[in-house]
Design a protein that fits this description.
- The complex is a heterodimer of chains A (557) and B (164).
- Chain A is an alpha+beta fold.
- Chain A has 4 domains: 6-110, Sulfite Reductase Hemoprotein, domain 2 (Alpha-Beta Complex); 134-290, Sulfite Reductase Hemoprotein, domain 1, CATH 3.30.413.10; 305-398, Sulfite Reductase Hemoprotein, domain 2 (Alpha-Beta Complex); 412-556, Sulfite Reductase Hemoprotein, domain 1.
- Chain A has helices at 6-27, 33-41, 65-78, 101-110, 143-153, 226-240, 251-258, 260-274, 283-292, 305-314, 316-325, 353-366, 389-398, 428-438, 442-448, 510-524, 531-538, 541-556; strands at 45-47, 52-56, 62-64, 82-85, 91-96, 127-128, 168-171, 185-191, 197-203, 215-221, 326-328, 334-339, 350-352, 370-373, 379-385, 412-414, 453-456, 470-477, 480-487, 499-500, 505-506.
- In chain A, the strands form 4 sheets. In chain A, strands 16, 17, 18, 19, 20 and 21 form a 6-stranded mixed sheet that branches.
- The model of chain A has no long low-confidence stretch (mean pLDDT 94).
- Chain B is an alpha/beta fold and 164 residues long.
- Chain B has an 8-stranded mixed sheet.
- Chain B is globular, with a radius of gyration of 17 Å.
- The chains are: A alpha+beta (557), B alpha/beta (164).
- Bound molecules: protoporphyrin IX containing FE and iron/sulfur cluster.
- Protoporphyrin IX containing FE binds at residues 46, 48, 86-88, 92, 164, 167, 206-208, 250, 415-416, 420-421, 423, 460-462 of chain A.
Chain lengths: 557, 164
């Protein structure tokens, strides 16, 4: 993992000191709430429905066990004993007191974690593939570039007051686990004709009330030009992005208004001026950072399919877990283990302080001290010896983190909704809880296979509903909560926005509707088809008919 | 209005003629873009320095070929949230190599001075009653920066590899 050097430490300490002064001036009334707001947002502090929420960055989703223990301590000392892992690989604490924030930030700085720019109209936490450095299909480890971008964007004087927030994601694999096409800037590694690794640069993706899949602005960019090219994209956005209407201020709107070709022209003209400036990344810095991400000292092991199969044959529950939650590792004898934060009935992404401590201990014992947070609000251990899988499984079961449902119908992404959020139309968490209680039969989950359900409590789309295979959006109709379903969304390398299924349903009908959709898929799928494949083959009609005609029939009867 | 330049409060030598019907015949003067465009001939003939004030929707491109005749460009922050002027200052110092005064005017918050300074501003119109006092409280004691900007300070990356 990246470790701070003297410069990183100093910068973070300076920032924490500055915020302590600002909080003091706010508490004494010297600063009005209006003046204080942008200052607190720059430090990740939101005003929610009931209290302050502090959002803490987990840069590109990578955590040490020491950092996770610190989160447990923060949850226990300053909050109500739990934290919430988000879709942007961050953690949020929901019940924070303003006067304690300076202490929290200082404690976080001790373990090299900050809340800087986790909100506000600036570049947010850089996100990436949670399997980075471990995935078999990876071209190169994207984390060195994530770290370069993290540093470049933190307290960037040019871009701290952009028209709106700005999100960047990177992947080094052809299999996109970071939803890069749904980001303001998405960076996807691939080789050019000469065989050199570089980035395809995408721009203008996003969710919210007007979702867009990003456009390719450049087919291939040499990694040494990463910072200058990103600077040019940001400068053009800062100058031309719309500031007249907050809902039209994201880069996706201006890119689609002026057209990607015009946007590209402006960026390339700006870039010509700076591409060979000091922004060109020196190889020495790439090497310095890369050293932190050097592969750990793996033991020389072999894959042990026979031994595992033996246990799997004896213990079906272990078998189900292996099939759903364990992924291939690039090093023989090792596996990647996903921890499901979606046990039936629990709010997706929440974790108690005690569980965080326990997970940190398991990471020490079984995964070389490291934990990854992924954008589906689960955690991963990325360096588990295959011979430890069975023991680890038993430990995870005790913590309720072994539900075999990764990337299945009950692995639901869900935003905080009306339980916390002052913009919400609806309570999204209970819908997720209902659904996860509804789909508890593990054999059924396995039968249904690869599936995503994403729920947002309003059209701001924090729960990624546009890109769920089934998306569920809370809407308010005449003071009542209803849920609008969409089908066919996806955030992978073939990203797509979902299509509206039909009129919104009351909460009570959502589980049955989802079940109907799933059953319809099972009835008409061809061999080996995922839901998404079937959907793309047959379109929305069969599903629409199945969900609405019986309801209509009942209404008439 | 107090003007902060080189860490001192000074009297603004420029007469602010923006939005006025007539422009004073002599002395340093600040005009708006419209005035500049309609009186460019006369204004460039003056012995005394001239400055132009740009709104945040008026990029410096509009005066790019006039910069040699200008001693001051004032960039407006209509609200502190509108960050366009940071990029304008950056372009003025970088692409256009302007070395006159770049002044921040409008909703200039003390907390933002260090960002402004880094992007190329060197003068600040402040609304406070006690600007120097406030400055002391609010000025950031930052001396590590992750990125190069217009002020020439070395970034952490440059410092790390200085000896390479
Ligand atoms: C509870 C307080 C929250 C508030 C008030 C809030 C507000 C918003 C708003 C207004 C947007 C739309 C922004 C736009 O389109 O410009 C948005 C988007 C988003 N939020 Fe939240 N949010 C909250 C919590 C969360 C949480 C907990 C997560 C993660 C689980 C999250 C993840 C996102 C994501 C991924 C987007 C979509 C980004 C995009 O449009 O590209 N938010 N949020
Ligand atoms: S989607 Fe809406 S309800 Fe859910 S967290 Fe975002 S703003 Fe709140």
């Amino acid at each position: 993992m990246y470790r701070y050097d003297e410069f990183d430490h100093k910068l973070v300490a300076e920032r924490a000191r500055q915020f302590r002064r600002q909080v003091k001036r706010r508490l004494s009334g010297e600063l009005t709430e209006d003046q204080f707001k942008p200052l607190r947002l720059m430090n990740g502090l939101y005003m929610q429905l009931h209290a302050y929420m502090l959002r803490v960055n987990v840069p590109y989703g990578s955590l040490s066990s020491r950092q996770l223990r610190k989160f447990a301590h923060i949850a226990r000392t300053y909050d109500r004993d739990f934290g919430h892992f988000t879709t942007r690989q961050n953690i949020q604490f929901n019940w924070i007191k303003l006067e304690e924030v300076p202490d929290i930030l200082e404690e976080l700085a001790e373990v090299e974690v900050t809340a800087i720019q986790s909100s506000g109209n600036c570049v947010r936490n850089i996100t990436s593939d949670h399997y980075a450095g471990r995935a078999r299909d990876e071209l190169a480890d994207p984390r060195v570039y994530c770290e370069l971008l993290r540093q470049y964007t933190i307290l960037n004087p040019d871009f701290s007051y952009l028209p709106r927030k700005f999100k960047i994601a990177l992947t080094g694999s052809p299999r996109d686990r970071a939803a890069v096409a749904l980001h303001d800037i998405g960076l996807r590694m691939h080789r050019n004709e000469a065989g050199e690794i570089g980035f395809e640069v995408l721009v203008g993706g996003g969710q919210g009330r007007t979702p867009f899949i990003a456009h390719t602005i450049r087919d291939w960019l040499a990694p040494e030009h990463l910072l200058s090219y990103v600077e040019s994209i940001l400068r053009v956005y800062n100058m031309y992005g719309r500031r007249d209407n907050m809902h039209k201020a994201r880069i996706k709107i201006i890119v689609n208004q002026m057209g990607i070709d015009r946007y590209r022209e402006l960026v390339e003209a700006d870039w010509e001026q700076i591409k060979d400036s000091v922004l060109k990344v020196p190889q020495a810095e790439v090497d310095r950072i890369n050293a932190y991400f050097a592969p750990p000292e793996y033991e020389c092991l072999a894959d042990i399919p026979d031994e595992l199969n033996d246990v799997r044959a004896r213990i079906p529950e272990f078998d189900q877990w292996m099939a759903a939650n364990v992924a291939e590792h690039r090093v023989p004898g090792y596996s990647i283990v996903n921890l499901s934060l979606k046990a039936p009935g629990l709010p997706p992404g929440d974790m108690t302080a005690d569980t965080m401590d326990a997970v940190a201990d398991l990471a020490d014992r079984y995964s070389l001290d490291e934990i990854r947070v992924n954008h589906r609000q689960n955690l991963s251990f990325v360096d588990v010896r295959q011979r430890d899988l069975f023991t680890l499984w038993k430990e995870l079961k005790l913590l309720d983190l072994a539900t075999p449902n990764i990337q299945s119908v009950s692995d639901i992404i869900c935003c905080p909704g009306l339980d916390y959020c002052n913009l919400a139309n609806s309570r999204s968490i209970p819908v997720a809880q209902d659904l996860s209680r509804h789909f508890v039969d593990v054999d059924h989950l396995a039968l249904v296979g690869d599936f995503t359900i994403n729920i947002s409590g309003c059209m701001n789309a924090c729960g990624h509903h546009h890109v769920g295979n089934i998306g569920i959006l809370g809407v308010n109709k005449r003071g009542k909560e209803y849920f609008q379903l969409t089908l066919g969304g996806s955030s992978d390398e073939n990203a797509a926005l979902g299509d509206r299924l039909g009129r919104a349903l009351p909460q009570g009908q959502v589980p049955a509707a989802v079940e109907t959709i799933v059953d319809t898929y099972l009835a008409i799928r061809l061999d080996g088809e995922r839901f998404l494949d079937t959907y793309r083959r047959v379109g929305i009609e069969p599903f629409r008919e199945a969900v609405y005609s019986p309801v209509q029939a009942r209404a008439v009867a | 209005m107090a003007l902060l330049k080189n860490n001192e409060m000074i009297d603004d030598p420029f007469v602010d003629a923006t939005g006025q019907e007539t422009i004073p015949a002599d002395g340093p003067v600040l005009v708006d873009l419209h005035q500049w465009q309609s009186h460019r001939e006369q204004l460039t003939q003056r012995a005394d320095p001239v400055g132009v004030r740009l709104r945040s929707d008026q990029p410096p491109e509009l005066i790019a070929r006039d910069l040699e005749s200008l001693a001051l460009v004032a960039l407006e922050f209509p609200v502190f949230r509108d960050g366009r002027a940071y990029s304008y200052a950056r372009l003025l110092r970088g692409q256009y190599r302007f070395d006159g005064e770049i002044r921040a005017v409008g909703d200039v918050l003390l907390e933002q001075l260090h960002f402004m300074e880094r992007t190329g501003f060197d003068a600040f119109e402040l609304q406070s009653d006690d600007p120097l006092g406030d400055l002391q409280v609010a000025s950031a004691d930052f001396d590590v920066w992750y990125q190069p900007a217009a002020d020439g300070r070395l970034s952490a990356m440059q410092l790390r590899h200085q000896s390479d």
